[in-house]
Amino acid sequence: MKMELVVDSRSVHRMITRLRKKQGVVRGAARQAVDNTTEHVFQLAQELAPVMTGALKASGKTASTGHVDNPKGLIGYGDDTSGHEGRPTSAYAVPRHEMQSKLNPKAYKWLERTLLASDEAFREEALRLLGQALQR
User: Fold this and answer.
1) For 63, phi and psi rounded to 5 degrees?
2) CB atoms inside a 10 Å sphere around CB 81
3) What is the phi-psi region of residue 5: left when phi exceeds 0, alpha when psi lies from -120 to 50, beta otherwise?
4) Rounded distance, CA 39 to CA 73, Å?
């Protein structure tokens, strides 16, 4: 006994068309997952950022960059704002990030530790948003 399976070319064309429509939705969901996680990590990092004058913490910023197929979220500290001893926060943001302090041990590598601890949260957010996008 032989059986032949034939897929109608119109069916294949419809499926490809639907997949192309989903492409933009999936890209948007990926961007949103990166943006949401960037903001989440930033808010957690702000809680741990060292505060002497408040200028370093206030200099923290986020940005959304990257190509549509490779979205990126950036978090940075340090700008031209005058901070400790009148120096711009850009002059001491990295050294302060690397400095260990007995007075505030949680401030050591505050951004790096927060980012590494948020790996699972990013995966969950990405899966949630991508799942929603595919169901549309």
Assistant:
1) -150, 150
2) 15
3) beta
4) 9
Q: How far apart are CA 58 and CA 63, in angstroms?
A: 15
Taking only Cα atoms into account, the Rg of the chain, rounded to an integer number of angstroms, comes to 23
Query: Nearest to residue 43, comparing CAs of 31, 61, 28?
Result: 61
Spatial separation of the C-alpha atoms in residues 125 and 136, rounded to whole Å: 17
User: The whole model's pTM is what?
Assistant: 0.79
Inter-residue long-range contacts of 24-28, CB under 8 Å, 24+ positions, other chains counted: 25/133, 25/134, 25/136, 26/130, 26/133, 26/134, 27/68, 27/69, 28/133
Taking CA atoms, 81 is separated from 52, 107, 120, in Å, by 14, 20, 34
Mean predicted confidence (pLDDT) in 88-93: 88
Res. 136: pLDDT tops 80: no
CA distances from 27 to 34, 77, 93, 119 (A): 11, 28, 33, 20
Token representation of residue 78 = 């340090």
